[in-house]
TrEMBL record:
Main location per the UniProt record: cytoplasm
Enzyme class, spelled out: transferase
Name of this chain's protein: Nucleoside diphosphate kinase
Gene it is expressed from: ndk
Transmembrane segments: none
Amino acid sequence: AVTRTFSIIKPDATRRNLTGAVTKMLEEAGLRVVASKRIHMTREQAEGFYGVHRERPFFNDLVSFMISGPVVVQVLEGEDAVKRNRDIMGATNPENAEPGTIRKELAESIEANSVHGSDSDENAKTEISFFFSDDEIVG
Ligand code: CMP
């Protein structure tokens, strides 16, 4: 079925001017950008977005990294969008990611790993509505 997922192009990628390169890989994987905006997250936004990771040892570093520069938040649409996006992103740690994936080809480290993508349809809905209103999404 055609579904939607949520994506973030992270500060390490925007810093290296890779917004287009990442988006091209998403598009070539069969995903369509139906909403997109460049933002600089506040600490409160980043802490709220990553709330499920609050107890993890890397939480503070993760939040600091995510507010270290601009990001591009996107809604992606396509057949089985969550899985399609996870496949093209590759493993969280770029060292473990398959060749041809965004993280293998572009990411710097497990923290500076260039992209975030929702891990389930349910989380996709929550994450999309964290950053976008319905009228900002044009399919
Ligand atoms: P993301 O999909 O954005 O969700 C949580 C993020 O935490 C993850 O990608 C990683 O970039 C980041 N992170 C930083 N350190 C770690 C770690 N040791 N294990 C897992 N994720 C980490």
